[in-house]
Design goal:
The chain is an alpha/beta fold. The chain has 18 helices and 13 strands. It is an enzyme of class 3 (hydrolase). Keywords: Carbohydrate metabolism, Cellulose degradation, Glycosidase, Hydrolase, Polysaccharide degradation.
């Protein structure tokens, strides 16, 4: 929880400062005091906050979290439909049956995006809308929905960035192949990816294969918190991980073979970002070592075409079964990398041990958002892309998710003064701008999320959106952060 002390002691301290007067410290409250006598200095300071020309500002959503309409137009059931209807799995027993009803409201939602001045929108395609059974005969009505959505985006000068898998595996695939426990699922995903790329054609020029392999593997098949709710032994879990990587590689190849010339491909991974506790050369090197190893089961093997020795040693007899051809497929060349960064995964410092670093634990009082898992650390948005470039020589990077949950109280006159979210964006984006000013090739930023939505196991109690959603009426109400984000996108600089 965010720590807010509004009690008497805090009130007294604030009033003491006021009554003592800032003039006692040699300061004045007059705004004229803060000025630049030298216009060139003012211009330099302003340019320091600028992002590169052509930087893409966007927002992001995912199909199951916003679309609703789960039983319409021949959509097939998904593992999240099944999981969310099991009592006790989701907070308040919420589900995505209606969600934000974007399936029916996409045109007005696109107008809300246009109002934000954004030039790109990241959304996911529901596999079971295209292939209700995961394989077999495609569903034209499902494809037509995404044609309508992308046509409307393009008509409003918003570039579609499509994610092909955001955790909503067709239930038929889970039932038939045991989901990601089988190589057959990876092959089915490649076939689906190729079909979508061929049939959406020139409408979509940027594809993300899979969103956050780490999350759906570890939480869905490791600890059972997410769909399909399994707790597999280590060997089976490692094989699930490998099959998801293989699916990514097969999808890259299928999109290349079936998409229009110039179609660009990446993935969106939940990057583990170790941050140097103090920016010394030794600690910076330690953060690079830690990043490569902490992402060894996911991004590292994709970028390097091999599992690290330490990863295989740690897995021992439970290591995944794979072939050299698997690794060639998994490491199929990408056009860009998408990285989802909400927080530092850990703080590290150099150490004279076998790892070359040691982890510094988060203090109990370290600030967090209203989501207990989200430790706040703006510098993650600097060191994440910085080390991705350094370790893997990435030529093009997108921040595909970054955001914060908040209390988001709606006032009587329908305002949401989410000052915490504005502070979050200002601080994190300052760090991202620092990275771009140093030549790190970050080409765009997608805020998570455009609107409040179904936040998986947290249901509808957790709000990340720029637009407040009244779940009784489904009205979208701009928060103060939406106005802030609009100013960011308009000026292309930290405000």
């Amino acid at each position: 929880m965010l720590i807010r002390n509004n009690g008497p002691k805090n009130f007294a301290r604030r009033n003491f400062i006021k009554s003592a007067g800032i003039t006692a410290l040699g300061l004045s409250v007059a705004p004229a005091l803060i000025s630049f006598k030298n216009p060139q200095e003012h211009e330099r300071k302003s340019s320091e906050r600028m992002f590169p020309e052509g930087f893409l500002w966007g927002t992001a959503t995912a199909a199951y979290q916003v679309e609703g309409a789960v039983n319409e137009d021949n959509r097939g059931a998904t593992i999240w439909d099944t999981f969310s209807h099991i009592p006790g799995k989701i907070k308040n027993n919420d589900n995505g049956d209606v969600a934000c009803d974007m399936y029916h409201r996409y045109k007005s939602d696109v107008q809300l995006m246009k109002e934000l001045n954004i030039k790109s929108f990241r959304f996911s395609i529901a596999w079971s809308r295209i292939f209700p059974n995961g394989t077999g005969t495609p569903n034209q009505k499902g494809l037509d929905f995404y044609k309508r959505l992308t046509d409307d985006l393009l008509a409003n000068d918003i570039e579609p960035f499509a994610t092909l898998y955001h955790w909503d595996l067709p239930q038929a695939i889970q039932d038939k192949f045991k989901g990601w426990e089988s190589r057959d699922t990876a092959k089915a995903f490649g076939d689906y990816a190729g079909y979508v790329a061929k049939n959406l054609g020139e409408r979509v020029k940027h594809y993300f294969t899979i969103n956050e392999l780490r999350t759906f593997v570890e939480l869905g098949y490791g600890n059972g918190m997410f769909a399909p709710g399994l707790k597999l032994p280590a060997r089976n879990l490692n094989q699930v991980r490998h099959h998801s990587l293989l699916a990514h590689g097969l999808a890259v190849q299928a999109i290349r073979a079936n998409g229009n010339a110039g179609t660009r491909i990446g993935l969106a991974e939940n990057l583990d970002v170790p941050v140097p506790i103090i920016d010394t050369p030794e600690n910076i090197k330690a953060s690079e070592i830690a990043m490569r190893e902490s992402n060894a089961g996911y991004l590292t093997v994709i970028m390097e075409g091999k599992y690290t020795e330490k990863f295989l040693q740690n897995a021992g007899a439970d290591a995944p079964i794979f072939t050299p051809e698997d690794l060639n497929i998994i490491s199929s060349p990408l056009d860009f990398l998408g990285i989802n960064i909400y927080m530092p995964s850990q703080y590290v410092q150099a150490a004279n041990n076998a790892d070359g670093y040691k982890t510094i634990p988060f203090a109990k009082s370290h600030p967090r958002s209203t989501s207990e898992w989200q430790v706040l650390g703006p510098e993650a948005l600097y060191w994440g892309p910085k080390n991705v470039q350094k370790i893997w020589n990435a030529k093009e990077i997108y921040i595909t998710e970054n955001g914060i949950s908040g209390a988001d109280e709606l006032t009587a006159d329908k305002q949401v003064y989410d000052t915490d979210r504005i502070s979050f964006m200002r601080n994190y984006l300052t760090q991202l701008q620092k990275a771009t000013s140093e030549g790190v090739p970050v080409k765009g930023y997608f805020y998570w999320s455009m609107m409040d939505n179904f936040e998986w196991a947290s249901g509808y109690d957790t709000r990340f959106g720029l637009y407040y959603v009244d779940y009784k009426t489904l009205e979208r109400i701009p928060k103060e952060s939406a106005r802030y984000f609009k100013a960011l996108a308009q000026s292309n600089k930290v405000r």
